[in-house]
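Subject: sequence -> structure tokens, single chain

Hey, anyone have a minute? Need the predicted structure for the following. Not urgent.
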Amino acid sequence: MVTSADSLEDDVSAFTDVPPLSYVDLQRDSLGYAIKRAQVRTYGILFNVLGPDSLTPGRMTALSIIATQQGINQSVLADMLGITRAGVVKVIDSLQSGGYVRRQPIPEDRRSYSLEVTERGYAELRRLNMLLREHEKQIAAKLTARERKQLIALLEKVAAE
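Reply:
Had a minute. Here:
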């Protein structure tokens, strides 16, 4: 009996056994291209749902992390976002200037700040949550609940280091 895992292995080995430059059908056989196409579509829908004046996806993620981990410092946030310390300073500066977060000095480490979400930040997160539910509904419209969970699990495997 051939399982779906066996057929997947056959598909992958068939791809790796092809001589260089003979494989060029990116539209049908490239996982990376399929992921990129899905990303472009989902971002298009996201920006349409959120509108032109919304936070960027990176800033939304940062705000969400800070809300779920009140008191997180900038270094830990940078690591979680996968960006440099200088990059996280720009993100926090933007969120702070919008009134969404505030920096609090850490008494035992005068070079670091803990981060807290403000009331305005929580209000923005509630607004974004409603909009993101609509976004999720639109991008998963052609998937069953089981397929959606499976796709998320598979993409997590691809994204894992």
